Amino acid sequence: MAVNIFKKGLTIRWKIVLIYCTLVFVAIAIIGVFIMGSLERYYINSVRANLTNTVQGGILISLSNYADLSSNSAEIQSNIDSAWARTIQEELFVIDSGMRAVASNMDNREGTAIESLDMEIVMKALVSGEIAESSDTISGQDASIPIMNLVFPVRHAGAVTGALYIRADMTGIHDTIDQSKQIFINAMLLALAITSIMGFVISKTITGPIQEVTQEAARMAKGDFSQEVSVKSGDEIGQLAWMFNELRVQLSNTLLQISGEKSKLETILRYMADGLVAVDVSGRIIHANQTAMRIMNVEAEDLENKLYDEIIRDLKEDLVFDELAEKCEGGVAAETFSAGGSTYAVRYDRFKDENGKDIGIIMIIQDITERQKMEDMQTDFVANVSHELKTPLTTIKSYTETLLDSPIQDDETAKSFLAIIDSETDRMNRLVKDLLHLSRLDHKQEKWFKKEINLISLLKACVKIIEFSAKTENRHLNCIFNPEDEIRAVVDKDGIEQVILNILSNAIKYTKSGGRIDIDAFTNNKTAHIVITDNGIGIPESAISRVFERFFRVDKARSRGMGGTGLGLAISKQIVEEHGGSIELQSREGRGTKVTVLLPAAPTRGRRGIE
Ligand code: ADP
To answer: How many CB atoms lie within 10 A of CB 308?
Structure first.
């Protein structure tokens, strides 16, 4: 499960709203400052212009008639009171060149009123002869009052004789500007509110598709690739959505491919005949397939709870991780070991990550028990054949040498020597014949001429063939089967005859003189049973399982003395199996042996046409 590493912060939506509002605020503020400044300047200029026009058109002309203002103060004051006070609403002071207030429309012109005048600009106007101006505030009854001071120089015959000081109350103008500012602020707040709402709505068109892509990405992270992001525009966000859909399809296909490969690999590993174990550098088993678990004798949970070394030690001490790592330093290493009655071949090598760093060891364990057995059998077979041939050859060689070396023997001795040579040659002949027969069976080269026959008839024929030697050897053949019965089977007559004769001759060979051999045949569950039981020497329990092996003989000397090759039962077994049947042997030492041949029976039909 992926952890969200992102801190909760402003969403893009709110960021867009904030940016919009900031831009609008900055724009309106700049415009506001600019307009307010212009407005203020406009009002002040118009006040100044009005006052200047008024003053220059009347009062200043009148005052310029006086050569000395202070000496005409009474007349000037009366002018102010009578006429000028009507044209000028502002505070008005006439100041002489000694900077004394000569006349005023204010009551106490020589007291507090004159003290509050800005004498600096008076001086400036008197000295420069230019209009001087200043802004200030004076304290009123409730609050301070903004004022504008204007000083006009008064000239008489070109010389500055005094000044006209006008103090204009600017409260009205300031109120107007304040109101304008308030209107501006209200307009700005409204604009910001509308901008916020619009920003919120507009930002949705940007953030909506991004949110959709984000949600889809979250779903993809959980493994759901089913949903598609809707592409609503061709802009960058639309392209992002389109690319995202492409990515989704590609990723989904790639993941499908990977999981397909993974399950294929898992299936191969699960069902592969060889064991596979992968161990990481910390000694933990990363993977072990079922064959490997069976070989190591562990359950799936053991793989998680135990280290590789703990598990493998029970199997083979040499296969611990460190030893393997050391042995495969130079590349793939291999060895064999035996455990639990099986032989295994192990091949192992280190495996690395993409940077070439060792990440563990991978090993393949192959069960080579059967192969080993086959190899052993082959070696034994060659040894056995050599031994079987060596004995008669040695005998033949020694008798021929005797015949050749010694002076002419009498006829009887020479004949007996030749008889021995003849019988040894026969034995070798039989042996070679049996070996060739086995070889043909092994290589599936034996030609079978299978046809439906009556096994009872075949048994009767076999008994007839063996009867003479049985009688000679003093063995009694006891046919239990009903000679009139019929047991039908599709078989190669010669092959099955060889099997029956072989079992019968074994029964005769390994039964003492006067012994009895019971021969029975019947059908049970669509299977033909041919049962040959003797009361002979029997087979020790430990040897019973081996009597079908090639060259196995319980008593080698006895078998050889009887002319046996040790291949009879092996050949018989193979012939019966070629017919889809089986052969069973039960025996008790000293009591006798029972051999049963089982063959698939064909359905019984009328006796006509049956051999
Ligand atoms: P052989 O040519 O030696 O008889 P077989 O393959 O026919 O070889 O039999 C293998 C061995 O099985 C014999 O050597 C013998 O020891 C034992 N055997 C086979 N049949 C009997 C039997 N009926 N009674 C006792 N031992 C038998």
So the answer is: 26
Residues with C-beta less than 6 Å from any ligand 1 atom: 502, 506-507, 510, 534, 536-539, 547, 552-555, 559, 564-570, 593
In ligand 1, which atom is closest to the CA atom of 592?
24
Residues paired with residue 55 on neighbouring β-strands, in sequence order: none
The ligand 1 atom nearest the CA atom of 559: 3
User: Which residue CA neighbors atom 7 of ligand 1 most closely?
Assistant: 568
CA neighbor of 516 nearest in space, from 526, 507, 528: 507
What's the angle, vertex CA 576, arms to CA 575 and CA 581, rounded to 5? 150
Residue 213's CB: how many other CB atoms inside 10 A? 19
Ligand 1 nearest atom to the CA of residue 555, by list position = 16
Kindly state the tokens that stand for 32.
């506001």
CA 389 to chain centre: 64
Reported as a single tens digit per residue, the pLDDT across 27-51 is: 988 998 999 899 889 988 998 898 8
Contact between 602 and 489 (Cβ < 8 Å): yes
pLDDT band at 611 (very low <50, low <70, confident <90, very high): very low
End-to-end CA distance of the chain: 80
Q: What is the pTM of this model?
A: 0.53
pLDDT per position as a tens digit, 437-466: 999 998 888 889 999 999 999 999 999 999
